[in-house]
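Second attempt. The first submission of Endoglucanase had a stray character pasted in from the spreadsheet, which I only caught after the job came back as garbage. Lesson logged: always re-copy from the clean sequence file. Corrected sequence (479 aa) follows.
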Amino acid sequence: MITPSFPRFLIILVLFFAPSLALDVSKPDYGDALSKAILFFEGQRSGVLPQYQRLTWRENSGLSDGWTYNVDLTGGYYDAGDNIKFGFPMAFTTTMLAWSVIEFADSMPPAELRNALVAVRWATDYLLKTVSQLPNRIFVQVGDPIIDHNCWERPEDMDTARTVYAVDAPNPASDVAGETAAALAASSMAFRSYDPGYWNAVKAFEFADSNRGAYSDNSNIRDGDELLWGAAWLRRATQDGQFLDYIQYNGKTLGAEDNINEFGWDNKHAGLNVLVSKEVIEGNMYNLQSYKASADSFMCTLVPESSSSHIEYTPGGLIYKPGGSNLQHSTTITFLMLVYANYLAKTSQTLNCGNINVSPSWLRQQAKKQVDYILGNNPTGMSYMVGYGDRYPQRIHHRGSSLPSVKDHPQPIACKEGSVYFNSSYPNPNVLVGAVVGGPGEDDIYTDDRADFRKSEPTTYINAPFVGVLAYFVANPNP
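This time the job returned cleanly.
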C-alpha cells in the first residue's frame, strides 16, 4: 500500500524555509554518491536480471525483444523514464561510462571499479547484438516511442509493440553506428583487453563511414562529429595510424572546425576536441593543433572572467543550457573540465583565454562547484541525486519507480491503468537510488513534479559522465 505524503504546499514550504533539516552539503560524501551513481544503472536494466541485482524492486523485462527479426536483442538499458531502448543515447552512455573508467579507474575504490565495469559490460553485451548482422545491417532501437509514451506501465508489464528498428545499407546511419564504434572501442580499453568489442568497433565504424548521414529524420542531429568521434576512439584504442589519418584528413569536411561548443549524446564536438587534444598536449601530433585550439576555446567559454565567456550559469552557479534536462549538460561539461585539466597538468600547461590565464586547478575547482551543486550545495538545499542526502526528488518521471513493484502488486498494470500513479501526488514507491534528474531551471528552482519531465526525468547519459567525475573527487576531495 502506498502511504500519502505531506500536501504539496507543505513540501514546498519545507524545501524553501527549513534548511536546517538538510544534510551538511558543504561536506559532500563523494564515495557514497559514486556508489549510488553506478547503482542507478541496475534500475535501468532490460532483459533477464542477474542474481546479484541489488535494486530488487525490478524484475525481468523485454524478454522477446528482437523476435520480429529472429534475432536476440534482449538486454541493454532503458535510457530514461520510459521503456524504449534507443541505441544512439545508449551507445553514448556506454562510451562515457568506459571513458570514466579509462580516466579515473585509479580513483575508484576496487568494489566500485568492479561495479562500473559490470555497468559497461551490461551495455556492451547488448551493443554487440545490435552489430551482429554487419556489414549490412545495424539495429538502432527497440520499442515504438509513440505507443510507449502513451502508456504508463512497468517494464515488466509491457504489452505495447516492441518494434525493432534496423538500418540496412546503403541507408544512412553514420551517427548511431559511429557512436557504437566509439562505445565498443572505449569499452575495450576499459576492459584492458582486445575483446570482441574492439573488432566489432571497426566493423561499426566502416558501416558508419560507408553509409553517411543521420539515421534519424531529426534535422538537429548531425553525423560528421560521430564519424570523427568513432575514429578518435579507435585511434586511442589501437594506436593505428589509419584512424589518425582519418581524423586529420577528414576533419574539415566533417565539421571539426565548426567549433560547436556542445557535448552530449547528439553532439560530440567538444568531447572530440578534448579527446584528440591528448596527443597534441603530449607532443605527439602537431598536425592536430586545430583540435587543441577548439578545446581551448571551449574551456574559455566556461570562464566568466574571460572575454570569450558565453556559457550561462544560474544565480546559484550551475552551468545552464536552455532546452530541458539541464544536468545532462552540467555532468558532461564537468567531465570534460576534469579530463582536460588532467591532460594540461601532466605537462604543466595552462590555458590562455585572451585576457587571463586559466590553470588546471581553476578547472577542477569549477568542476567541484558543479558536483557540489548537484549533491545539494545549491539555493534549495536539495540533492538532485535520488537517494543521496536527506532531501532529494521524490516524484521522478520514471515508470518503474512510480508504479508499485511486481513484488508488491503481482497483478499486471495495463497501459492506461498506470495513469492513476502518474497523476498521484504521492512519492514514488520505489527509490531509484543514484538517479540524477534533469534538475532545476535557470532560476535554480525545482518543483518536485512527476509531470515536469524536463526537470524530473533521470537518464543514463546524465549519470554516465558523473561516474567519472565523482570518482575523481573521491580521491581528490579538495583539488
